[in-house]
Amino acid sequence: MNYILFAVINIMLLIFLISKNKSLFLKYILVILLALIILFPKESIDSAKEGINLWIFVLAPSLLPFFIINDILVSLNLPADISYALSGITEFLFNTSGYGAYTFILSIFTGYPTAAKIVSELYESNKIDKQEGQKILTFSSTSGPLFIIGTVGVGMLNSPTAGYILYLSHIFGAILNGLFHRNFKKTNYNNDKCDNHNTNNISFGKTFSEAIKNSFITLGFIGGYVIIFSVIIGLLNCIGYFSILSSLLQLIFKFNFKTGNTISAVIQSLLEITNGCNIISKLDISFFVKMIIISFIIGFSGLSIIGQFISILYNTKISINKYIISKLTQGVFSSICCFLILKYINGTIESFNNIYKNTYFNKYYSILILIEILLMLIFILLLFVKSKQNRHPPA
User: Fold this and answer.
1) What tens digit of pLDDT does each residue of 6-15 get?
2) What is the C-alpha to C-alpha distance for residues 385 and 390, in angstroms, rounded to an integer?
3) Whether the model pTM is above 0.90
4) From the CB of residue 28, how many other CB atoms can be counted at a distance below 10 Å?
5) Which of 211, 256, 318, 342 has the fewest CB atoms below 10 angstroms from its CB?
C-alpha cells in the first residue's frame, strides 16, 4: 500500500511540474492529501500539534515583537533615514537603494520571513518597485542568530561555535548572492531623500494598535504554513515515503545505505528548515559534511518558508520563480563559505569545542556584544541628528 501511495504521489508531482494546467493537478494533489488525513487521523493531529507548538512557543515569541517594532519604525519613517544614510553602500554593492540596507539589517537579526514583510510594506507604500524588491530579497532573505546559533548550533549540534560558523557562512552567503544577482536586471530606484512626513502628529496609540493588528495577521499566515507543512511531513513519514525513496536511490544508483539515506534526508529537509536541520544533525555522517548540508538548507530556507514569503508578497507581483532560484544560489554560496571556513579551522567537532572553551574567546565575547550594541546606538543617534538637520535646515 505504501509503495502504491509513493508512486501515485510522485506521478502527480511530476505531472504538476510539467503541466501547463497546474490548477487541475493541484486539485488532485490536495484530494490525495485530504485522503491521507482521513486515513491517518491520529498522525495528522499529532503533526498539527507539533506545528502549532512550533508556531506558538518558538516562532511567535521571536517574531512578533520584531514585527510590531518594525511597523512602528516604518510609521516613524526610520527606513527612509537609513536608506538616505546607506544608499551609497547598497548602490555600489547590490545596485539597490538604501532601503535594501534597512531590510538587510533587520533580517539578519530577526530571521525569516522579516525581509518579505518589510519589502511588502515598502512596495505598498511606493518606496520601491517590484524589480528592486526582487533584488533586495536576494541578499536580505536571511535566517536569524536565535535560530542558527541557538536552535541549530546549541540544540542540534551541541556546539555554540558551530552555530557561529553557520551564522557567518549564512550572512556571507547572502552578501555574495546579492553581488551575484546585482546586474541580472536593471533596477530603477530613487536614492533621493524621501519626504519625511511629520511624525510629531502621529498618534502612538493608533500606530501601536495598527502595528499589533498587522503583525498578528502576518503571524497568522506564517502559522498556517508551519502547521500544514508539519502535517504533510508527518503524513509522508507515516506512509514511509522517505524510507522508500532511500531504498530506491540505493537500488537505482547503487548507493550504499549511508549515501542513499543522506540524499533522502536532504530531500526531506528541503520541505521545512527546522525539521530538516534536525534530521541532518542526526545522520551518521562526518561533522564536516553535516555543517555544509545544514548551511545549504538554512540558505535555501525550505518550501515552508518560501510558502510564507509567497503569502506575504502576494500583492507585490514579485516573481516567485526568480525568488526560488535566488534561494538556491544563496544556499550554494552559504555552503561554499561554510566549506572555506571549515577548511581554514580544520572543521571537526573537537576543534569547535576547543575554540569555544578557549578562555580568550569566553572573556571577550561579551565585550564584543556590548561593542555591537554601542555601535548600533551611535548609528541610530547619528540618524536622528541627521534627520533633524534635514527637516530643519539652517536659514
Assistant:
1) 787 777 777 7
2) 9
3) no
4) 14
5) 256
